[in-house]
Structure formats: structure tokens, C-alpha cells
Amino acid sequence: MPRFISTLFTSYPFIKFPNLFGWVFFAALLGTAFWLYRKNKEYRVPWEGHTWLQFSGLLLLTILGNLFIGIYIKTASQMPWSRIPVESPGVALMVFGALGWIIAGGTLGPLPAFILGVIAGLLRAPFDTHIIFTPLQFGILAILFSMSVRQRYRTFSYKALRQPIFASLALLPLFSVLYLLSVFFSATHSEITARLDFAINNAGSATLAMAGELFIAGVIAQILVIISPAAWRRNQALQPSPSERKIETRFLVGMGTFVIILLLSLLVGVWVVAGQATHLMLEDRLENTAQISAESIPFFLETGQNLGIQFAKNPDLFSNNSEELAKLLENNIQLIPYFNQFFVVDVSANILSEYPPTEDDTRQFFLEEKAGVLLASGGVPAQIYTIPPLISGDPARVSFFFAVPNEDPTLTRVLIGRTDLKTNPIIRPILNSLDSMASIGGEGLLIDENSYILYHSDNNIIASYYEGERTNESQFYEATSSTGMRDLVYYHPIIGRPWAIVLRVPVNQVQQLALKIAAPLTLLLLTLTLIVVILLRIGLRIISRSLKNLASEAGRIAQGKLDHPLQISGTDEVGQLGRAFEQMRVSLKDRLEELNLLLVVSRSIASSLEMKDIFQPVLEAIKSTGADTVQVVLSPEIISDSMADMPTRFAIENTKGEYAHLDVEIFEAIRDSEQLILPNLSRSRGGLQLSETRPNPAALFALVLRNEKRVYGILWAAYDKPKLFTEADIRFITTLGGQAALAAANAHLFLSVEVGRQQLASILDSTSDPILVTDHKDRLLLANPAAWEVLGIKEEDSDLL
């Protein structure tokens, strides 16, 4: 039930110091805080005058907020600290406890937030949490909050964590883990399972209280962000998040989150199932032990009653001779070893006879026994009472009262038989069954109708009173022991008698059994998860390395560095992408080489108008594709009578004239088409009439040299081996053929003009009249010798004009 408090000073101050491993954990927390501070230098804020003023105000807010105005929260599972004289009031939810370091984390940076968090922890440790780890817990939470709200990453998850309300609540899982470990190392219980049980049961209320503090502080901080965004670093540019920078980080964050959630789910499931299984096993054992014991108690009591009633019918009990009565009592004790002491008394509880004889200080009857004597004298045939043992620490005794029947109502005697639970042979197996609970760290109790403990596995508790719950039906419930540990209690009433069997087992025994079951599975899951994470990291690193290589290759391609081959391994998507990059590199390199070759050919063609000079670079370029023979054959139709001396066949061939006989055949076959492509002449000849007695190539590529619908000849290349002409080969040779056709047209036009010029010059030289030939701009083109003479220019100097 929540309870309002005005100040923490009303609680009992104390701190539980940890063991050796706890101090190691303390050092680890301190190192973590230092590492977080050193890692995030970009989040630091320079200290100025207004910074000190703001820090002082937040320091005052931290002190007041952690000492005044709060609510005590106490859950049903919360357990008190052992060896503390006062009851725990619960966990304090201080309304403004986290506000100081939350605001400092957003406006002043990690270091001021850490300092205020540590101060808040120092104030809360003695009065609330009672553990020395609290200052470092709060300090680490403050640093992480500052990092979260001051980061400037642009992805959705980082944008959400930049909001104070979400950033503060995101700290809860980490706080729960830190608190659980801190309490585990601070608990005084010797068993690990007891420490774990204590930490788990107290973590719920602590987490709930911290959730309230963080939520209140987060809401107020969110309002401050809206009012003053610049103070919370909202005016700075966003930047790519780590998952955007590296694909490996993106996959690890995504898959890592999934693996962690899956692992936690499996671990929780394993522990829950193991805990339930062991809980059921332990309940069955307790129930069976109590059932067997409870069924034997009525037989023990009925046996005593039957023996006593039968003995009470003996008329010799009315003898006035005390020695004879003692002898009679001795014979009955020796006959059946059930009772270990007999008394014969009158209505006033005066002892008439007894066996065995007792000392004076042990002959007194207890109040219950005196009341039993009165009831027996009043006609009650049999009664049963429990009385303390003779020796402290021994089991209790049971006293049976029997009215000795007699027809004379004035002569009344009562037979009292006592039996010791420690020596009675009938109840000894029951007590051994209760003692067996010690093997699992538990204890067994036998109580009477007055909650008087007749027997306990711990002798120091015998003869005290049972303070636990009592019901009319068997039930399981949990109770807190005197050491602050939780116990599983089974209460089983005895049928026919208001006695009860009570069995108590510490809950940590359930957890120990669960630990034996779940620990191997947990270890297996952790091992498999570690292997999966390592394999995932290796696989992602291989993929990221391959992608980096591809990115580097793309950069080299963009820079024109095409001589670096890409190493490809595998046939997966990355391998396919690598092959695509390599094909692109090779294709681009070949294309650039083709363009360079075409440029060289174009320059060579442009530098000359002689047929031999213009065809030579074309033939060499085509020869580079692996051709054995490359030839250009001019059409007879373009050869005029004045050009009869000009060669019509230009070739580069390994053996001169080896395939010359194909010129006419190819000319005829290609006349009506643009090109002829024969990758394998042994399979397809494309209309060629090949001679079997002459050498023939294995592959052939031929095309017509056509320019403006006029055929200037053919260009063909012969290959010694079959060749599969790719689209690039066809495009390259066709382009060269086009340049050759254009060059042939230009050369033919030049030759035609040159022949006309020579004819005109001959005509002009043959006349004696001076003649000048000019263009439309009156520039001199030709002059005959007579004109040079008139102009006074020597003929040998006419070339200088």
C-alpha cells in the first residue's frame, strides 16, 4: 500500500556492504562510468559563468528532491534485510528525485549529470536502498541519459531516444539489472540461491519506484525541451547513425536485438518451467510426507487410548496396597512398551501409586492434568493432554487420563499414563519422517490444538508456540522466516484430532533444484548464442569486406583505373555482384581500348588521302581481334581509266595470297547484303562456293564499304579457328568498316579531283595566252607559264604564292 512521506530522515539508516566479489563489481561500475565519460567527448559543454549558476541550482534541486516529498512503495514480494531491528517501510519514490540529474544531462552534459547522480545516490543509499552501489548506479544512468538526449543521429530510433520522456524510461531495464546485481552482492545470505531470491523479490518494488521518478522527471524535461530547444542542443545538424555508416553495424543491431530478445525469452522460459517443475516436485514431497505422518498420528493416539481403557478395567487398581499397585503398573509397562510412566490418583489428584518412582520436583501435575483428573472423576472415560518434556530440547510428552470404572461412586480413582514422543515406538517413524526434511534444508513440526510445538527438527524450538497460519484444510503458503528468507510452508491438519503437521522448506531450495535443472540448459543456450553471434559477425564481416572491395573497385573504375582485376570467390549474390563489376570493368576497358583504337584509326585516316595509308590502320585494328588475314578489295566500278594503275587489293596476312581466291566469292556473296558473318565455315558457308583444293579459313567476317549508297568495295577478315563474334566484335568491326568506307570515298573523290586538276593544268600549259584561274573570292588557284611570265614571277617561285 503506497504511503506518503515528507522526508527520508524518518527511516532507519544503514548500509549493507558487499563481499569481495561485490567490491569487484563496484570497481567494474566505476570503470564503466569512467569509460563512458572518456568515450563521449563531443557531448561535453564548456564551463562558463552561467553554467556554474545552473549547476548550483540543479545541485540544490537534487538534494531537496532526494530528501523530501515522496511515496513509500511496498509490494507483496518485498523481503526485509536480515539482522535489521526494524521492519522495512518499502522503497521510496521521491517525486523530484531524478529531476536534477535529468535536466543536467540534457543541458550541461555527461559530467555534471554524473556528479549530480552520484550525489543523489549518496543521499538515497543510507535511507532508502541501503546498498553502496546506488551512487554509481545513478551516475551511470545520468551519463547514459545525457548521451541519449544529446546525440544527433537521424534515424527513427535515435530520434525517439533524443526525447527525454523516452530516454528516461529506456533506462529502466538497465536499472533493474544493476539493482538486481547490487542487491545480490550486498545480501548477507550465504547461499547463492537465497541471494538471488532476495534480489529478485526486491527488484520489483525498486524498479516500480524508479519508473515513477524517471517518468515524472522525463515529462518535466520534455516540457523544458519544447520551451527552450537550444539549451537541449536541438539546433545542431543531424548526422548519419552508426547503422547507416556500416551495413555490418546495421545487421548486428537488428539481429543482435532479435537474438537478445529470443535468448531472454528462452532463458526466462527455461527458468520458469524449471522453477514450476521443482516447485511441484517439492510440493508433492511435502504433501506425501505430511500425509503419511498425519495418517499415523490417530493410530498412535487411539492405541494409547485403547491400552489405557483396557488397563483401567482391572479391578486391582482399587487396591489400597501401594506396593501391589506399583507392581501392577510395572507389569503393564513391561508388557506393552507404549507408556513409560503410570500414576493412580484420587479425585483430589493425590498420587496413590506410581511407576517408575519419581522425584518430588517431577511429581507435580500440570494444570491441564489437574483439570483432566476432575473430568475423569466426573465420568469422562478417556482424555489426552500434551505436556512439556522432562529435559529441555526433548520432544514433548503425551498424558492419557482414564476413569477407573467402579459401582461405588464414592470410591473414584483415575489412571494417568504418560508416554514420551522421543521413545514411543509407534510415533518414532513419524518423527523420523519429520527429521527427513533437514536433508533438503527444511524442518518439520508437530503441533497440538493450542499451537504448542510437540516436536521440531530443531530441538531449540520444541515447547514453544507456532505463530503461523492455521486452517481446517491443508494448504501451501509462503512465509518469511526469522532470517528474512522466504519459506514454502505446508500446513496439514490431522483428521480426528486438532493436531497438525507443519512442513517448512526455504524457497531457495526450490531455486537450487531449479538451478540444477536450468543451469545446463542456460549454459547451452548461452554457448549457442555466443557461437551464433560469432558466426554472424564473421559472416557479416566477410560480406562487408566484399562490399568494401566492390566499392573500392567502383571508385577505381570511376577514376579510370581499369587495369586492376577483381578477385571473385563464391557464387552467391555478393559473388554475382562482383562478377557484374568485373564484367563491367572488362567491358568498359575493352570499350575504351576500342575507342582509343578507333581514335588512332581516325587520326591516321585523316592524316592522308592515299588509299594504302588510309586502309593500313583499319586493317591493323581488325587484325588485333585475332584475324589471320584482313583485306580490303575495291570495287572495279570506282576505278576509272585514269586510275588503272592504282592497286585494288590491300591486305595484312600471315601468308601472302593465301585466301586471295576468296575475293571474288565474297564479293558475289555480299553484294546484296551489308555484311556476312560466318563463325564456323565447316557448319555454314553463307552462300560461298569454297574450293576443296585451296586453303579456306575457319571463320569469316565480311562487310560492304558503302557510303551514300555507293559501294567502294568490301572489307573481310579471315580466322584460322572458329570464332564466336560477340556484339562488341560486330560493333567494332562495323565501325571500322564505316570509317574505311568514308575514307575510301574521300580518297576516291580526292583522286578524281587530282586527275581533273592535272588534266586542266596540262591544257593550260599547252596554250601561249596567259590564263589565271581564281575562286569566288578572287583567290588564285591556277596559272599557266605564260601568266607567270607576264606577272614577272619565275615559275620555280610560283609555289611560294
Q: What is the count of distinct domains? A: 6
- Count of individual beta strands: 20
Largest sheet: 5 strands, antiparallel
**CATH topology annotation of the largest domain:** Arp2/3 complex 21 kDa subunit ARPC3
Helix/strand/pairing class, anyone?
alpha+beta
CATH class of the largest domain: Mainly Alpha
For the residues shown, what is the average pLDDT?
82
Amount of helix: 40-55%
Q: Roughly what fraction of the amino acids lie in strands?
A: 5-15%
Please state the overall shape, judged from the principal axes of the Cα atoms: elongated
Tell me the Rg in angstroms: 56 Å
Count of DSSP H/I helices: 20
Low-confidence runs of at least 5 consecutive residues: none
Q: In what order do the strands lie side by side in the largest sheet? A: 5-4-8-7-6
N-to-C CA distance:
120 Å
In a nutshell, what does this entry contain?
The protein is α+β, with helices and mostly antiparallel strands and about 800 residues long.
How would you portray this structure in words?
The protein folds into 6 domains: 3-242, Arp2/3 complex 21 kDa subunit ARPC3; 292-299 and 427-510, PAS domain (Beta-Lactamase, 2-Layer Sandwich); 302-420, Beta-Lactamase, CATH 3.30.450.20; 530-607, no CATH class; 609-761, 2-Layer Sandwich (Beta-Lactamase), CATH 3.30.450; 767-800, no CATH class. The chain contains 20 helices and 20 strands. It has helices at residues 20-39, 49-67, 99-107, 110-129, 134-150, 156-161, 164-169, 172-186, 192-227, 242-245, 247-312, 322-335, 367-377, 428-435, 507-558, 573-606, 611-623, 662-670, 727-766, 785-791; strands at 3-7, 68-73, 91-94, 341-345, 351-355, 382-387, 397-404, 413-420, 443-447, 453-456, 475-480, 486-493, 500-506, 629-634, 649-653, 675-678, 699-707, 710-719, 772-774, 780-783. The protein is elongated. The N and C termini lie far apart (120 Å). The mean pLDDT is 82.
